[in-house]
Specification:
305 residues; mainly alpha; 16 helices
Length: 305
């Protein structure tokens, strides 16, 4: 579609459509740097335009990209500034959704009261209208707060509800993200078998969406469980597969370190636990295995269980 839109056209609709299309395409192709530039330019273009719905789409796209890039300060700044624009719309839905983007950076900083306030304000608008998609994220953020407060069992219940809401819609990104959180909660609660199952189900959802970054992130999480359950060789192989893939230089949503940095740190720990020859052999097998083959093998275990 982009080639049909003249990049030199002065028409506002053409400019907006081209900017938003570039942002969305760049994001789904995992070109986050390009997506950040494109979405940021679209936000700047539409901030003063008389088209708040188009501005909402551009801002929403930009906030998602900034989240994936780990630029949480910018998420808070942009969401706060954006609320002033979308708050002029008749429906309060738009404003509370944009404001809720600030909840994750705030909760990650430890300001749980502010995060809960933002989530409560969003929930008050979402629940009466049965809005499951955004409510699944709301529940997921609440679960992350309970995790940080040291209550993983409560987080299991909240993430489970978020997975249910996403599943009712067939909302694959919500299913994937909240299953990943559910696995983290089970892991924190010491239920390693449930954690691995949740991670593999999350991996299967990521595979259905063909999202490489998400698949690599889940492989690394599964590797962690394998290491904790007495399967260090398998953990080395999986982590080596992750590190070898170029897309592992990206961040898994909500994490500070890149996927590769996390997997490399895990490999360093595993190297100390194993004999040098068995570690080297496992590492070689792993780095020579493509991520898609590793995914198919892991996902196939779901039909066997």
């Amino acid at each position: 579609m982009l080639e049909r839109l003249d990049e030199r056209s002065p028409d506002p609709t053409t400019i907006t459509t081209r900017a938003l299309s570039t942002a969305v395409q760049s994001f789904f192709r995992a070109l986050l740097g390009q997506a950040e530039t494109a979405a940021g330019e679209a936000v700047d273009t539409l901030r003063t335009a008389d088209d708040p719905e188009a501005f909402f789409i551009a801002l929403f796209s930009n906030l998602v990209v900034l989240m994936y890039l780990g630029k949480y300060d910018e998420v808070v700044t942009e969401s706060n500034a954006g609320v002033a624009v979308v708050d002029t719309m008749d429906d309060p839905f738009w404003a509370v959704v944009i404001a809720s983007f600030g909840a994750f950076p705030v909760l990650a900083s430890g300001d749980f009261d502010t995060a809960r306030r933002l989530l409560d304000e969003e929930q008050a608008v979402l629940e009466p209208r049965g809005e499951h998609q955004m409510m699944s994220w709301n529940l997921g953020h609440r679960a992350r707060i309970t995790m940080l407060e040291g209550r993983p069992r409560d987080a299991v219940e909240l993430f489970g509800r978020a997975v249910e809401l996403s599943s009712e819609l067939g909302y694959m990104r919500g299913i994937h993200t909240n299953l990943a959180g559910l696995g983290d909660a089970h892991l924190a609660a010491g239920d390693l078998k449930a954690a691995e199952l949740a991670f593999i189900k999350s991996l299967a959802a990521a595979e259905q969406m063909s999202m490489v970054r998400e698949m690599l992130g889940m492989i690394a999480k599964i590797a962690r469980v394998r290491a904790l359950t007495g399967r260090p060789i398998e953990a080395v192989e999986l982590n080596a597969t992750v590190v070898a893939d170029p897309s592992s230089t990206q961040r898994f949503l909500g994490e500070i370190a890149t996927i590769r940095e996390n997997a490399s740190a895990a490999l360093a720990d595993l190297q100390e636990q194993l004999e040098s020859d068995e570690y080297a052999a496992a590492h070689t097998r792993g780095e020579s295995t493509s991520y898609d083959l590793a995914v198919k093998k892991l996902v196939s275990s779901l039909s066997e269980s």
